[in-house]
Design a protein that fits this description.
There is one protein chain. By secondary structure, this protein is an alpha/beta fold. It is 34% helix and 30% strand. The protein contains 13 helices and 18 strands. Strand 15 and strand 16 form a beta hairpin. The radius of gyration is 20 Å and the shape is globular. The protein starts with a strand and ends with a strand.
């Protein structure tokens, strides 16, 4: 089977390497960065292909030669890229996490007879599938609460943070309004709102804040209360709020000594080098999901915990592992015939199908990624 991965970045590259270990796959990776492609091709039996993926027409023509597509482009390119893939009539696993409503492409995907699993990362992603499975088991879902974050092992001032996926997408977490469900109603709050401190035995105190991570769950899971919050080291909220509220994340140009400059571009130039995760630098992914509901009139509480760390043997970041390997296992799940929903398929749909979540969990466990389930 011929597979093409669009994007050779922090997560795209590890996904390509994981797929290349499967003798049944021929893997090609497309990216505009020749250096990233050469580095990847030197590590695994992968065909590098330099292409400008910002042009949807080129993407549509490109993917038509392959059996399956893995879309790992940045979020701002994600919607148009997915649309191009669907026009080409190709099954796709998507981790672009674009801001647009994916169900706008549902009719196109169904017309093409395509399985398009999107948001297939850690959360949304594997966590969404776990929520979907819990909802299938329950007669009524009352509460869904998720805490998730990716952080460096070593805290270095001034930011005490490193970007474990596209930094531009990280900034989106600080500026995109957070949507959640409270008492059955949609609530919209600014990002970084509703701060709280939480203790995690193996990593210490972290602070949580509202982000817009529920995505399709708000449409697909009926629950009285549902919220997703991002985890960072204490003090991060104040720093990001100061940058945001001072206009450093704005895309509106301002005049500086006669030159028009977008504040966001300046921020990127100054901050992103300090957010760069150096090769071999340790980091971890932490997530906790709590789901409350009723079954046969009795209250049931599901809790899922994940703590995953950088793999020094392969040099793969934890965020790449927990995000990318969820996507590659989902691809194998479709190839093996365990899942064949036609149309746009958010990860929670996989939780509706018996056998899918165990398949994903087993594949992740063999790669050292272990979710702990507690039912009470």
């Amino acid at each position: 089977m011929k597979i093409i991965v669009l994007g050779a970045g922090l997560v795209g590259a590890p996904m390509a390497m994981d797929l290349a270990t499967d003798s049944g796959f021929e893997v090609t990776v497309a990216d505009v960065d020749q250096g990233a492609l050469d580095s990847l091709a030197a590590k695994a039996p992968i065909t590098p292909l330099k292409r400008d993926l910002s042009d949807p027409e080129q993407v549509q023509n490109l993917v038509g030669d392959y059996d399956f597509v893995v879309d790992a482009v940045p979020g701002f390119m994600g919607f148009r890229t997915l649309k191009a893939i669907l026009k080409a009539g190709r099954n796709v696993i998507d981790i672009a996490f674009f801001p647009e409503d994916p169900f706008l492409l549902d009719d196109l995907a169904k017309q093409q007879g395509v399985t398009a699993i999107m948001d297939c990362g850690v959360f949304p992603g594997m966590g969404s599938a776990l929520v979907g499975r819990a909802a299938r088991r329950l007669d009524q879902v009352n509460n869904v609460l998720t805490y998730v974050g990716g952080l460096p092992e070593k805290r270095v001032q001034p930011w005490e943070y490193k970007a474990v996926f596209s930094p531009i997408d990280v900034i989106e977490e600080y500026i995109r309004p957070a949507r959640y469900i409270e008492n059955g109603e949609l609530v919209i709050m600014p990002a970084l709102s509703d701060p709280e401190l939480l203790e995690f035995p193996e990593v210490g105190t972290l602070e949580a804040f509202n982000t817009d991570g529920l995505r399709t769950l708000m449409q697909t899971i009926k629950a009285s209360n549902m919220k997703e919050k991002t985890l960072r080291f204490p003090g991060h909220i104040a720093k990001m709020a100061a940058l945001r509220d001072s206009g450093f994340f704005s895309e509106e140009p301002v005049e500086v000594n006669g030159q028009m400059v977008r504040p966001l571009d300046l921020t990127v130039k100054l901050v992103f080098p300090m957010w760069h995760l150096a090769p071999g630098e340790g980091e971890f992914t932490i997530m906790q999901i709590q789901i409350d509901g009723l079954k046969d009139g009795q209250p049931i509480h599901y809790r899922y915990d994940l703590l995953d760390r950088f793999d020094p043997t392969t040099g793969t970041t934890s965020m790449a592992r927990t995000t990318g390997y969820t996507a590659t296992m989902a691809l194998r799940m479709v190839v093996d015939g365990l899942y064949d929903h036609k149309g746009i398929s958010p990860p929670e749909y996989m939780g509706r199908v018996p056998g899918c979540v165990p398949f994903l969990l087993e594949g992740l466990a063999t790669r050292g990624i272990k979710y702990v389930e507690t039912i009470s």
